[in-house]
Amino acid sequence: MQEHLLVPYDGSPLSQRALERALTKHPDDRITVLYVLDPVLAVYEAEAKGAPAASTLHDRMTERADEICADAAERASEHGREITKATENGRPARTIVSYADDHDVDHIVMGSHGREGVSRLVLGSVAERVMRQAPMPVTIVR
After folding, report:
1. What dotted CATH number matches 4-141?
2. Are 123 and 91 in contact (CB under 8 A)?
3. How far are the Cα atoms of 10, 45, 46, 63 from residue 110, in angstroms, in the given order?
C-alpha cells in the first residue's frame, strides 16, 4: 500500500538529505515537499539585512519559496520521480504538523536543522517540536 510522505524542505543540506532519503528509501510512495514561509523569521532576517517594505518582503519570500520547491522537484526528477509541491504560511512546526494532519500524511521525513544563522537555531527546534507533536512517525535526518 502506497504511503504519503511529507518532506519539509528549505533547500538546506539536511533538507536535501531528507528528500534524498525519502526518494531512495520509499520508491513507491507519494512524496509532498512542503516549504513553510515563516513571517516572524522573515522579519528578523529582513531587519538584520535592512528591512524592505512589507510587500517587497512578501514578494521575495514567495519567490524564494518557488525557487526552493523547483529545486526539490529537480532533485526528484533526477530519480525519475514526481513530487507534489506545497507552500504554507505560518510557524514552521505547527504548520508542518497541521499540514500533515489535513493531508493524510503517513510519515514525515525531515532534516534535523535548517539553513544557517538565526534560521538554523530556530529550525533545530522545529524538528524537535514536530517529532513531539506529530501523530504519525517522524524520521529525522542528520
Report:
1. 3.40.50.620
2. no
3. 10, 23, 25, 22
